[in-house]
Amino acid sequence: MSIMMELDRGCSNLREYGNEQSLLSKPDGSSTFVQGDTSILAGVYGPAEVKVSKEIYDRATVEVLIQPKMGLPGVRERAREQCARETCEAALLLTLHPRSSVTVILQFGSLSNCQLPSCCLNATCMALMDAGLPMSHLFCSVTCAISKDGQIITDPTALQEKESRALLTFAIDSVEHNVLMSSTKGSFSLQELQRCIAISQRASEQIFQFYRESVKR
Amino acid sequence: MAAGFKTAEPLEYHRSFLKENCRPDGRELGEFRPTTLNTSSISTADGSALVKIGNTTVICGIKAELTVPPSDAPNRGYIVPNVDLPPLCSSKFRPGPPGEQAQAASQFIADVIESSDLINMEELCIEKSKLCWVLYCDIMCLDYDGNLLDACIIVLLAALKNAQLPEVTINKETDLAEADIQKKKPLKIHRHPVGSSFAVFDDSVILVDPTAEEESLSTALLTVVTDEEDRLCAVHKPGGTSLSGEKLQHCINRAITRNKEIRKLVDKVTESTKTAK
Fold it and tell me: Which Pfam families does the record match to this protein (chain A) (predicted)?
């Protein structure tokens, strides 16, 4: 079941999102997430067996593996894996599955680098939902770009990203709408940060609504 | 007796201190550990520095090499930071290829260098499309007791301020580069980014400058990097439990104060090396 939605171009100005769930037969949960030109395929295996060296006595071990479209995963992918892993660890109820593993594999489907960390996290959340893993809250990710003249743009295109002065990516949780993950590039002032967080929190409502509608179908 | 309690119930042990608004090592919640800095630690490197934040010891050595600029940026040089966490610094790091923490730290430092505009890369270029400097910054942790990212940023900044590069001219006849080792110039540092790390404990208490134990028990970690104009160069929170707006605000204010303290330290050390020469 695939869904394409033209989201309301209101104050948050988000573009088209696409999502398809349960498309792979082997993983326990899978999902693709398409944001503009960027598409990512996520597969989740879990709770499954874990290597004795990696097992934790009272919680599940979460592993995230990122595969770029071309080439081997490098240092940048490792940093993204760490962000995704820690966000999942906070959202999943890991103590329900001690001494087991939850593995999330993300495969980049497009060469476009636009909004990559956001798309990774959104795809991960939808795949975790598809796998039916117990979570205390959902999370979604929004990217904000601050242009050279101080304007804040949500959901920037690749061109807007390149010309921006700063790029901020936040993961927002669904219960309290607080910041779960923050990753920034470029320099910005405190006021700009606060405005971006407020805008991301508003935009996250639309994404959570999209999640609900995808799952309903 | 306390040692037994600490091993059996580490979380409860820390909570009993936090109830009294202090920490096992006697610090307040908002207090950084004593920071010491030493430059020119490695005589064979072009620039080096060693920093100790409490027990965490990090050393940085800078080697400058000449190379051809990349084709997509022919008028700029580049900096390659690399953070190494050898098995020496802590029992949780095994020998072999760099683990996730080391790679994530290297990526973070590379992002901070780019975001904060630390050095104008165009000043590293000697001749467009032909020759430029590449600065290999090797950051190695000698003793890991938490707060790695702050230490890496301070040591990198101090090492770059300490670095001296020879003047390079291109001989018109042979078209080869000639480096004059007698004439050395320091690098021009535009911005002074300083990081402050925080650990969120039990979703509510924020600890400044966590030790390795506090990091392992925390539910989230946050690093804020500010520069001297109070602009934020990085707000790095790689997941973990959520943080409300006011707590984030509080952390950023603390980071801004820390920036001033560290800048004074780095300036003092740089001045003392100049007068010593």
Answer: RNase_PH, RNase_PH_C
